[in-house]
Amino acid sequence: MSKMTAVQYKTKIEPVWCPGCGDFGVLNALCNALSVKEVDPKNMVFVSGIGCSGRLPPYVQSYGFHTVHGRVLPIATGIKVGNPDLTVIAVGGDGDAFAIGGGHIPHMARRNPSIVYIVMDNGTYGLTKGQASPTGPLGMKTGASPYGTVEPPLNPIAMALAYDASFVARGYSGKNKELEALIVRAMNHRGFSIIDVISPCITFYNTYKELPPQLAAIPADHDVKDRAKAFELALRDDKIHLGVFYENERPAFEDRLKETADKARGAGAPKLDEIFLEFA
Ligand SMILES: Cc1ncc(C[n+]2csc(CCOP(=O)(O)OP(=O)(O)O)c2C)c(N)n1
Ligand code: SF4
Fold first, then answer.
1. What is the pTM of this model?
2. Which end of the chain is more exposed for a tag (fewer CB within 10 A), N or C?
3. Of the candidates 223, 78, 237, which has an alpha carbon nearest to the alpha carbon of residue 157?
4. Which DSSP state fits 219?
């Protein structure tokens, strides 16, 4: 396959996102990263949940699966296990990831399949017209919470670190080059990578003005193998840090599965006929 440009990774389908939606920035960074990695579209699957963010797969030259709300990770895992040679990229919103789908993240972390999970985190349920999501701030006023929400937000980075996900990063849709680099690094990582990408919803929760002064790059001397330090950075409330918090190579799910399957098929393994005889 000859190298494709970022533009060639985009399909002719016009995104339905509102002009100014952060998800455009994520799509651009993704296509740039695919061009850097020279991924062959026929060996790549984008899997998405439901939400504005979940509309992304048809915009990229690849196979795609627009699944159900909160179930992007089990389906992505099934695809990876079915064909470990595929590049599998899961995408969705913060509601999809941390509300209805939140129960899947710890199991992805402990299984550690080589899947990149990009959460387009806008603090709101964009598709259903702007209700507060698990990452929306305490007191957030929406049509469904006119006097403000009463639940404080969860911290996705601290949560992923607590589950021991093997690659944990945060990006911003407005910092395209940095986001591209994070996606490339996540694709190079063997194991489960989660990138929480702040991707503002200009229509229902516009944070474009307040965000930039709060953002700071993770210090260059941060040791990504130091999980305790990663926690410290994640828990800081003076700044929202961007970059790789944590990276720790350990055996991937697909490799462990293959090892076990080889063992089961190998010499000394019980033969199917013998097993059947036990029940005759
Ligand atoms: C099982 C189920 N419950 C609820 C919904 C309704 N629903 C569709 S998208 C969505 C939330 C979208 O928010 P988010 O995941 O943050 O994505 P965004 O639209 O902000 O990109 C909800 C609650 C649904 N489609 N399926
Ligand atoms: S409603 Fe919000 S999240 Fe959905 S496309 Fe518009 S700006 Fe993006």
1. 0.96
2. C
3. 237
4. P
d(CA 223, CA 230): 8
Any ligand 2 atom below 6 A from CB of 203: yes
- The string of pLDDT tens digits covering residues 183-197 is 999 999 999 999 999
Q: How far is the CA of 129 from the centre of ligand 2 (A)?
A: 8
Per-residue pLDDT tens digits for 153-175: 999 999 999 999 999 999 999 99
Specify the residue with its C-alpha closest to ligand 2, atom 2: 201
Q: Which domains does the chain have, with CATH numbers?
A: 7-251 (3.40.50.970)
CA of 239 to the centre of ligand 2 (A): 25
Per cent of the chain over pLDDT 90 is 92
Residue among 82, 93, 4 at smallest CA distance from 56: 93
Q: Which amino acid belongs to residue 230? A: A
